[in-house]
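Why show two proteins at once? Because comparison is the fastest way to build intuition. When a single record is shown, students tend to memorize it. When two are placed side by side, the eye starts asking what differs. So, the first record is below.
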Amino acid sequence: MKRFLFALAAASLGLTASGGYADDKPGAVLTEVAEAVVTVTAVDQQARTVTVQGEDGQQATIKVPDQAQNLDQVQPGARFLLRYLQSVAVFIGPAGATPSVETGSSMQLAEKGATPGGVITEVVQVQARVDAIDYNERTVVLTGPEGNSVKLKVDDSVKRLNEVSVGDIVVVAYTQALAAEMIRK
């Protein structure tokens, strides 16, 4: 299933990363995957929320999308397998691009009467222009699509910083995916 989530994230990034990236410029992808079995402790049908408790005792309340058709099958004591993926991709965009923001999401939910569950994916992609760079201090000033600027420290683990230039477009794509499947006894 981890491969499925990686493929899901890659597909999401591919769909939203308009224009691609510059093959000859530096870039990186960081991905984190977690899996847990949780137990339902409360269900509020009217508010469409489910409170779950993890094996560590921590509780969380999850808002169930209006499109989910099987909330009536979820009762306290039910168990779900949750898989969570978070990915951040950073790369230099194509020459001539302009700062922008794009968002996208997808939802695949179980059909009416099927075992409750589904996959929800959200992607946010921001393109910002490099307006200043200090290679010695390893800092960059990025300006976003609304003209707001931020000065960032670039971690030592980032290689090839010397290949980034003023005027380059830095693209950051952030993906979250949550897959839930009820465990039938």
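Second record. Ask yourself what differs from the first in the token line.
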Amino acid sequence: MGSSLTSRPHRHPEHADTADRRVLDLLGGSEVPLTITEITAGTGLHANTVRSHLLLLTEMGRVEIVRENRIKPGRPKLLYKALLQSEPTDPYRVLAAELAAGIAGGEVDTSPGVAAGRRLGRAQRERATHLGPYVPAHDVVGMAAEGLEVLGFETATDPLGDRLYLSNCPFADLARENRAICNLHREMLDGFFGEFESGVSVERLDIFVRDDLCVAHLNRPDLSRASAPLSLQSGPKPWEK
């Protein structure tokens, strides 16, 4: 399984090379606010990926948006700068902020986890304007991976795109004692995919299959499942006829 993952090498949390970490490192190392174009060039990320992470990082209070001090005619550009914090980002605070926002904007009879996932899905969708009103299943899975990275995970998908690998879980110690946090992550994935019409859903979530690696098995209606080997199919075999 290891060789088939589309992923970066494993790192400890403090060295995780996630997309939001790259954006924050670039902004934190710059003496002046940067434009989307400059952030894209500096991180090597797609512009829409950068926009998505900037939106979430702004809501988390890690990034501030400022307008260009423009003298020439024309609309001022939006610039982004990192906000200094006295302590590193606490993933529990990030998750709590997402849940609180999900509860505030949630629907009746909707769990906080599902509501937070839907909110995350809407935020990602608003930034995927290049995809149009319908977002293909492949892109939806990629957007889910990006959203989870903002929460502190390292993510990867298999080449087929029907499995989402979650490692470097910032809640691993808590999850080993109480599976409620894993159920919460499952609900967030359910809520996220429910925001799209691609038909992607979570079939099951395998917890700690290896070290801190969890695997979300996805239903992808756009993918046809391979037929079972002939020896496993029911009915008479060719050589039995």
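One difference worth noting in the second protein: The first helix runs from residue 19 to 28.
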